[in-house]
# Entry
Amino acid sequence: MNIAVCVKQTPDTETRIKLTEDQKRVDESDINFILNPYDEFAVEQAVRLKEAHGGEVTVISLGPDRVKTAIRTALAMGGDRAIHLKTEKHPDDPLVTAKALASVLKEGNYDLILLGKQAIDDDHNQIPSILGALLDIPAVTVVIKLEVDGNNLTAEREIDGGHEILKFSMPAIIGAQRGLNEPRYPSLKGIMRAKKIQIEEREVALEPEQLKVELLQYPPPKNPGKIVGDSAEAVPELLRLLHEEAKVL
Amino acid sequence: MKVLIYGEHRDGQIRKITFENITLTRSLNAPFEVVFIGADIPDAGEQLSRYGAEQVTLVKGSGLEKYSPDGYAKILAQLVQKHEADVLLMGATATGKDLAPRVSAILNAPLATDCTKVELDGDQLRLIRPMYAGKVLANVSLNSGIKIVTVRPNVYSAHENPADAEVREETVEVPDLKTVVKEIISGAKGKLDVTEADIIVSGGRGMKGPENWHLIEELAELLGAATGASRAAVDAGWRPHDEQVGQTGKTVSPTLYVAVGISGAIQHLAGMSSSKYIVAINKDPEAPIFKVADYGIVADLFEVVPKMIEELKKMKN
# Structure
């Protein structure tokens, strides 16, 4: 099975986001970057499928030089090859990112393309579905279960208040959701192996962006709350406040 | 500027986000139409009239009774063009998240997802969307002919504003469907999803184990709330993934969020701090959750929650 995994490097979830003075960008100086947590599920699934069916896993990532660290993590988990699409920064417009990925994915003739359902930085939730339309192949996202039977796939995906089961065939795109699997920690052997893999670098010409981030702001600070009490005796007062002051009960 | 609102429906019911988007669009004073694909809603006209829709189109076609991501996307893209819409407005629901990017790709039109503010300034849309699960708010602009926007549920409330809805049916040629939903598994009967709920009761590590979750469930039932969980509770295997609130779970904006035994890790706060009112119950007075809580009780949850249940039962009677 010829598998591609598209990954993004994102700040760690515990990061406190600081903005640059002009509020145009996020200040990256103190950020601990990681492999996007949802992409970990995608990499894990790719490696498991390779282990079960044979084949090769190609890791693809777009972005500045620092994304190589995320690529190495994915390789250490079991990826075989890697392509780095070099750009100065991550585009604001996910459609632009997706088009650049699509052109590389087209060449690769992959049976299966896996990626996280969203990146936890810009939270667009768009790339897997966009790729489905651009490549005109099935794309099922927010997937928590995937079964492969020859060329046929059955995926279970989360919807609001339930699950959907979809059937389709390869080539296809899967957007991984938490619960799809339990990602492995890279082994020492995996890390050593990853170091030896040559990451193929490619320059990409990005299309003009139609979506632009004009300004970033911190959410308005919450007004300091009220400690209603320090025992269960405070419950009637809490309920009164919710009823009379907040008017939510 | 003409807006096309994608009407969401499930099991013959129009979903709340559709009415929210109608109310929002009316507030923009923009002409709009509502389209439903594959819907069988007997009283669509009556329901939509109540919220002020005047133009409604029910799109029919063979095989459209069940959701098909690629099929619906192609049809919706055609509708946007045929109805000469400048803006396609959808909900940032499971369906909206799935469908909108595909339409964006087909029409080469930019998409701003999960917006929490949509304003119109002349012909320019002013949009705000949270990033980093709400740690940052971004003002984004869409510079294109057709623009696509999905709006976070529960942010704009739906208001009744009666009009006379004209409901038309339109039959379309259905493209070859690559992906079709074979089966829908509903969650526990009547179980509300956290993203749609007005009230959420969430439990964390302080709950000590899944065997204590009946407290969360009972409290939630009395409040008509959905149940959520912190990452700690999900990682421990106490609760299913779909209940997780936070940066690697769901981002929610209910009217009331009750955090029980949740300390308030930064990634959890990111996912829920835009709730209108937050109640925190935790025995650690230093817990970060109290920094975002409107009302807090610093005490043992195993004493506070049973008392809440008892008092709420009294109120009900």
Notes: The mean pLDDT of chain A is 96. The CA atoms of residues 154 and 167 of chain A lie 5 Å apart. The first helix of chain A runs from residue 37 to 53. Chain A touches chain B through 85 residues (CB under 8 Å).
